[in-house]
Every structure is written in structure tokens, then in C-alpha cells.
Amino acid sequence: GGGRRRGGRWCIVHENVKMGSDGESDQASGTSSDEVQSPVRVRMRNNHHRRISNEDINKRLSLPADIRLPEGYLEKFAMNSPPFDKPMSRRLRRASLSEIGFGKLETYIKLDKLGEGTYATVFKGRSKLTDNLVALKEIRLEHEEGAPCTAIREVSLLKDLKHANIVTLHDIIHTDKCLTLVFEYLEKDLKQYMDDCGSIMSVHNVKLFLFQLLRGLAYCHKRKVLHRDLKPQNLLINEKGELKLADFGLARAKSVPTKTYSNEVVTLWYRPPDVLLGSTEYSTPIDMWGVGCIFYEMVTGRPLFPGSTVEDELHLIFRILGTPTEETWPGCTNSEEFKTYNFPKYNAEPLVNHAPRCVSVSVSVSFEAKKRISAEDALRVPYFKSLGEQVQSLVDTASLFSIKEIQLHKDPGKRSAVYPESGERSGTTTRRFKQCL
Hints:
Layout: E1 3-6, E2 9-12, H1 14-17, H2 39-46, H3 54-60, H4 73-80, H5 90-100, E3 108-116, E4 120-127, E5 133-140, H6 149-160, E6 169-174, E7 178-184, E8 188-189, H7 190-196, H8 203-222, E9 225-226, E10 235-237, E11 243-245, E12 252-253, H9 273-276, H10 285-300, H11 310-321, H12 336-341, H13 375-378
């Protein structure tokens, strides 16, 4: 666990959440022992070994290849580290990372403020260790309350998620007043990306972004993690076009699908009707509804259900999908919330009527959560066939763009872009992508 009771409040226990540069947890060092080896014995054993190189240390501590190690660190590490065929103790690993500069505020230079949320402020920063840009998420610690549960949740989940389409947590810094999470830096989020191209995206780019979103989600869902707050602002994109899931503050590791969770999650526009009506028994399909809404928004340039209140949101959903009945959504008419709203009887309309710029955006919608397609299955629909077979066999940590044929196209709405001209335009027919909602 990452928290411990101290003086009547919860706080983060720093050593329990300490990670390497790529968010690697201590357990990865191959031992759970906290023994510290005798330096004399270690020195004698290490005399018989070859000279330790930067690469050896990078591998041993899971560090980025471009890290700058402090002067004299190689010799010091060689003296104190056990032979390479023996596991390092957790305490020695932590001490090694701390000496390099991890877990220290002075290792990072704070640059521009990028945004402010309910419990955190995000800054652009630079790591003195690698000279790379980072995102510094500063979480204020209220003296009485300690670290917010959202922060503890984000740290504990991201420690274990290693995927090309999930933002990397590089480091954690804990001071009395603040907990700082150091993430890899990505230039913009999907909302900014769509704004920059005048909400007219190349159909090819929509496909690449959707595939990466589903890849990241399938990985989470396989590990029983729900994101619960999917929206364009939480999908980060770099210049290459790599898309990564971010902001796991509301995410939950689900153990049993029937577990009751709070229904006060997920931004309204991307929230499924079962959750809007107060359902607290939800599972991975909560995220798949959001995927469908985001897909529609990328294709059309506008949100699918931009409601201002829960009632307004349900109204917008029912006006397009039809007011649910026992046939279309078994059990819904017994819901007290549903009866209270007393919705008019709307008939379902084809989604294509609401996407005039596209000849066919056919997204099959399901009120029933269990009928929504899974992220794993969605990756294999015919819509993605044009990306080729290689995309289906990528290892988790490999980028979609590691396949040389795959690259971003120029978006029709973007005036100055360095991407190749796209053969597809948003005004052309898009292939069918079914059952997302």
C-alpha cells in the first residue's frame, strides 16, 4: 500500500511508492528484502567482476538511456552494489535512485503553468537528469487530510501500467506541503488538437487516434482497471501522433464487476445513460461509451451529447437513440430515476442524420452495458483493416508509429502542418465502426 496512518491522518509513505525513471516499482528489483549488504563483502565480491558501465547501471535501475549520472557515481555504485547476478535490496535500490537525483524537487526546473484542476496544478518542466521536458503535477496536501485519495489512486495504478498508449510516470516527490508526480511531457491533448485543426480532422488520423485509444484501454481493462473519466482533455498527443491515456485520478482497479462505485464520475458529455440514471454496478463498458462519443466528436468536429445537466444529457441521448423501453433496455422502466424524469417518447434516429459532413458514420448504440463492444474486440473490427496486420501484434510498450508505414496525414482544417497530404478527407465515407456506444 502507498499510505499509512500518521497522527490521525493519511499520508503517502514515500519509500513505498518510490519508482525508477520509467515508473518501475521497487518489486521489480527481484527481491522484497530490505537487508543492506555489508559494503566490505560487496567490495570483495565485486573485485572479480568487469568494470561497470553506464549501460549496466541504466539496466540495473531501469533508467532512461540518455540519463546523466553524477560525477564519480559509477565507482560508488560498483563499490556498494551486489554482483549483477544477484538481486539488489529495495533499500539499496532506493538509495541509488536518490543519489542520482530521483525523488528530489531540485532535479526538475519548473517552466510554464499548463493548467489547474480540483486538486492539482500542472506545470511544464525540464529534468536536469536527461534534459528532457516533463509534466509536473503538483498535488496540494491539506495539513489535516494528507494526500487526496485521487492522488494515491493515480500513483498506485500508474506504477503497474506500462504501455505505449498510457502516460509514463517517471518520478514521485513527496514534501510536507505537496506531492509532485513527474510525467513524460506531451505537447497537447485531443481537445487542443481538434481545435488546432478547426475540428476538421483527416479520417486517417481519426483512425490512428481511435486505435491507440482502444489499445491503451484494452491493456487497462485486461488488468481490471477502469479509467472512468475518458474525455478529449485526458488523451494526450505528441508531435509524432502518439496518443496516451492520462489523468487516472478517477480510475479504479475493479475486483468484482458487481462492486458498488460512486456514480459521480465521468464528465457529463461522455457519461453512459446507466450511470446517469444512478447505476453503481458498472464495469469496463463505462469506458466504451466514452470511446464512442470521442470517435463521433473526432469525425464530426462536435460533441455527440453536450448536455448541461443530468436531465439535459439524458434528453439529448434519448432524442437520438430513442427513449428506452423494456425491449431496448430491460429493467430501465423500473428505475425510480427514470420514472421521475418522465421523458417524452422519442423514436430512434440514424446517427448519420447528425453527421452531414460524413456519408456514413454508423455507430451502433446500446443502452445495455453488456451489449457494448469490448476494447479488445473493437481493435479487430474491419474499420482498422487498412492499417495492416502488424498493428495487431505490437508488444505493449511498442508505439503504433514503430511501424514505418504508419504516419499522421495532414488535417484538412490545419493551415500549416508538416504531415504528408492525406488521400482521405472527412467529407468522404468512413467505414463502419459498430457497437461502441
